[in-house]
Design brief:
With 290 residues, the chain is α/β, with parallel strands linked by helices. The protein has two domains: 5-176, HUPs (Rossmann fold); 193-284, 2-Layer Sandwich (Pantoate--beta-alanine Ligase, Chain: A,domain 2), CATH 3.30.1300. Helices cover 39% and strands 18% of the residues. The structure holds pantoate.
């Protein structure tokens, strides 16, 4: 078990990454907001498959939270996070402060247009602009060859893929499957803020998506029908505060009418203080089982 090098300043991070690059080492970045769980650890494992130096960034990025969102209550525990990283053989933990990462007159942003419009972009205006801006800064400071993101935030991963392509970064963006609790709830740092009752009901979000998946494998091809089945299930069993239930094209993230190509079924709900999102990807092989 070896502790990762803890790096606080962007300058030091740039120096270390460029020395690794001069030594022809392959760098993977796993960007996180901390309060690490098995989901993050699976991203680290995926990073290790292709790279010989792993950087995990831990930064709760204020730019991606709206004024009434949970920036202040977002769970944090840096000591425990560093202990976890030691167990997974991470080489560097980049933990900038808000002050050293965003200068007082910080006034630049990176924005991806179309992919950020629907889904989480509807209820969280400005959220993706905050994500793409901070990820740009992380890419510039860490100079990764590979960056790994989780499938739970599928829209985020697709937005970052698009940004990387559009800005000609030679970075391989990998998407790792969602890791779930024993009852199906997608792992998320925010789950720590659920009440006991909410925690016991929360897996019904995934259950609703699975119901939709079953209908698709049974032959239903109307996206609207699937959307209604999932929506009703979540409304009856979990909450009426449903932000969206969507059946979308896996590449364009656009709504579809007929299910005939790779799709994602995705949903977001609000429980009292906590917003939950989840999704299932259905590829042609899943579809052909109908
Ligand atoms: O998914 C997250 O944890 C964050 O959005 C990210 C990618 C670390 C950017 O702050």
């Amino acid at each position: 078990m070896s502790k990762p090098e803890i790096i606080i300043t962007p300058d030091k991070m740039c120096l270390l990454a460029s020395s690794w690059r001069s030594d022809r080492l392959k760098i993977a970045l796993v960007p996180t907001m901390g309060f690490l769980h098995e989901g993050h650890l699976s991203l680290i494992k995926k990073a290790r498959e292709t790279a010989n130096r792993i950087i995990v960034s831990i930064f709760v990025n204020p730019l991606q939270f709206g004024p009434n969102e949970d920036f202040d209550s977002y769970p944090r525990n840096i000591e425990r996070d560093i202990f976890q990283l030691s167990k997974y053989g991470v080489d560097a933990a980049f933990i900038p402060t808000i002050q050293n990462f965003y200068s007082p007159n910080f006034s630049t942003s990176v924005d991806v247009n179309d992919l950020t419009q629907g889904l989480c972009g509807t209820d969280r205006p400005g959220h993706f602009k905050g994500v793409t801006t901070v990820v740009t800064k992380l890419f510039n400071t860490c100079s990764p060859h590979v960056a790994v993101f989780g499938q739970k935030d599928f829209q985020q991963a697709m937005v970052i893929k698009r940004m990387t392509r559009d800005l000609n970064w030679n970075i391989d963006i990998k998407i790792a499957p969602t890791v779930r609790e024993h009852d199906g709830l997608a792992m998320s740092s925010r789950n720590a803020n659920l009440t006991t009752l909410e925690r016991s009901n929360a897996p019904k979000l995934y259950k609703g998506l699975c119901k939709g998946q079953t209908e698709i494998t049974n032959g239903v091809r109307s996206a609207k029908k699937i959307q209604q089945i999932i929506y009703c299930f979540i409304k009856e069993n979990l909450t009426e505060q449903i932000e969206y239930v969507e059946v979308i094209d896996k590449e364009t993230l656009e709504r579809i009418d007929t299910i005939s190509r790779p799709i994602v079924i995705a949903a977001a709900v609000r429980l009292s203080k906590t917003r939950l999102i989840d999704n299932i990807i259905l590829s042609p092989s899943n579809l052909s089982t109908s």
